[in-house]
Amino acid sequence: MIPALEVGEALRPTLDSIKGCVDDIVVSDGRSSDHTAAFAENAGATVVVGDRGRGQQLRRGAEIATSEWLLFLHADTVLEDGWIDEVRQFLDEDAGKAAVFCFALDDLSPWARVVEKGVAIRSRWFALPYGDQGLLISRALYDSICGYKPIPLFEDVDIIRRLGRRRLTILNSKATTSAVRYQRGGFLRRPLKNLMLLLFYYLGVSPQKLARLYK
User: Fold this and answer.
1) Using an 8 Å Cβ cutoff, are 137 and 70 in contact?
2) What whole-number distance in Å separates Cα of residue 120 and Cα of residue 113?
3) Are the C-beta atoms of residues 167 and 104 closer than 8 Å to each other?
4) Global pTM?
5) Is 77 within 8 Å of 14 (Cβ atoms)?
6) 192 vs 93: CA distance, rounded Å
7) How many CA atoms are closer than 13 Å to the CA of 46, on its beta-carbon side?
């Protein structure tokens, strides 16, 4: 399940990385003004269109997905070759858990490696991966925790908190995400901004207010 908004053909690498490995690809489009929905449909995906907002797009896509297992993936994230082999092993051994992938950026700079290490620490020490690491979860477990909430920010943190550390596995396979946001926002400044917003979230500031600060 991929939430998308005005990404057009940039969606192709993400689709290619999972095509043939999943039963059905669902793209939840947030009423893009470009050809994103048409491109996804022509590429063989099932497309559902509704109001924008990653939380509600994820929830909307999950509602029409029919598989026993759900794989949520951002539109600018690509899974590395061979990921399905590790996932099959995970399904055999840890069927009662959910899983996320190892975060990577498509940038060769040393700062990108620093960000990756920081994400690895946050994920493994604090059991707090973000949505750009994907989420693999059974339909039964997803429904039991009431799925993604239709909130404008930190929908990924919210669902991981409800899952809990004991039901979360971090896979070794990489989910490589576009570094454009870090290149524009700064490899140091952007993570610090996200950390500040996360702190406010834990202090009880509403996702709606945080979304305005994020923008």
Assistant:
1) yes
2) 10
3) no
4) 0.95
5) yes
6) 36
7) 14
Q: Name residue, tokens 């999972």.
A: 18
- Interhelix angle 207-214/189-202, rounded to 10 degrees, is 160
| SS3 at position 105 | strand
Task: Give the model confidence (pLDDT) of 136-149 as tens digits.
Answer: 999 999 999 999 99
Residue pair 204/134 in contact by the 8 Å Cβ criterion: no
Fold type of domain 2-214: Spore Coat Polysaccharide Biosynthesis Protein SpsA; Chain A (3.90.550)
Structure confidence by residue, pLDDT tens digits, 18-60: 999 998 999 999 999 999 999 999 999 999 999 999 999 999 9
Q: How far is CA 190 from CA 13, 84, 85, 182, 184, in A?
A: 25, 31, 33, 6, 9
The C-alpha atoms of residue 181 and residue 177 are separated, in whole angstroms, by 10
